[in-house]
Amino acid sequence: MLPLSGPGFSLFEQNIPLAIAIVVCSSVAYAGGSTLQHVAVGRLVDPDADNRAMGLRQLWRLIRTPLWLLGLFTIFVGASAHIVALMMAPVTVVQPVGILAVPWAVLMSARIHRHTITRAMWLAVSMTVAGIVVFTLLAASAASEHTVLDPVAIAIGCTVICLAGTSLGLLGWKGPVQLRCLMWASGGSFFYGLSAGMVKATSEVIKHDGFHGMPIFWVVAPFLVLSYGIGGFMVQQALANGPAEITVGSMTTTDPIVAVTFGLVVLGEGVRITALTGVGMALAGIFAVWGVVLLSRYHPDAIKPESATPPEAPRVAAQQNS
Predict the structure, then answer these.
(1) For residues 39 and 45, what is the distance between their CA atoms, to the nearest angstrom?
(2) Angle between helices 180-205 and 244-265 (to 10 degrees)
(3) pLDDT at 6
(4) Contact 236/37 with Cβ under 8 angstroms?
(5) Band (305; pLDDT cuts 50, 70, 90)
(6) Are 129 and 103 in contact (CB under 8 A)?
(7) Cβ atoms within 10 A of the Cβ of 32, count?
């Protein structure tokens, strides 16, 4: 069992530099695992289908696929490291650093699928990374060392995030085809962002003796399980409907924004943030999200369907005239 403390070291003591270093490593594992899972999912779905959402039978086949399981294990390693980092630093600092998974995913996917990384794609990735870096620096400069555990506030915050994530998931299921990957991933990101907040809250709760009997434990524990389960389901649907880079990009952008907002508003980590800092974080977050939107627009998988449309028009017209 992993020791939670030792001579001169404790997972429960704040150590922001070490936490950031751990998250950088976990971002590589997360990008690699997501790319492997995207390849496995791509072998089960029809790329020409209007709606590539997977049913229960396909999901059952998927979870028995060795390549998908390897991706799951890689993600588990990254997620475990991420949880350790959350125990050592505020969620407002740790969560945004995961955006580094985006460039890793772009490089890995280009290597696997042998497509060229265009200038527009690199610009989109740079926008996303730059936005989240600024977001992280602003959050770290005003991060609080104390976490507030209010059962009512946590329950309300969790409910709002769940409703928002579910709404995005519905758009991924029935919305415009070109936006389904982004919407599925964004919905999953809301639940994963919530899970990060729940991990932080849980790590604070279990510091107390007899935490099993505390009402707050029975608020955070169910939401923790729920957010991971539903978030994972939505992410697989996103991988079935588009490239791994878009899924990873959306998750590592929306996820930290949701998690940080939860930490600031619900867990009381924003008590030292000024109005000017808050405006700067909001603008940096918008800049990062816009980078992901551009990545979904200029990715080769998004361009091919559009470029394939004009050549079909003369052929259809000729068939009608004949």
Answers:
(1) 11
(2) 40
(3) 52
(4) yes
(5) very low
(6) yes
(7) 21
Q: How confident is the model at residue 307 (pLDDT cuts 50, 70, 90)?
A: very low
pLDDT tier, 1 (very low <50, low <70, confident <90, very high otherwise): very low
Residues 6+ apart with CB under 8 A from 299: 121, 242, 243, 245, 246
The answer to whether residues 232 and 163 touch, using CB atoms and an 8 Å cutoff, is no
- Number of C-alpha atoms within 13 angstroms, CB side, residue 318? 5
Q: Is residue 37 a contact partner of residue 105, using CB atoms and an 8 Å limit?
A: no
**How many angstroms separate the CA atoms of 292 and 255, rounded?**
12
Gap between the Cα atoms of 295 and 291, Å rounded:
6
Look up residue 143 and give its DSSP letter: -
**CA–CA separation, 313 vs 290, rounded Å?**
32
Three-state DSSP state, 118: coil
Closest to 77 (Cα-Cα) out of 20, 132, 23, 38: 23
Alpha helices in 63-118 (DSSP H): 66-88, 91-94, 101-113
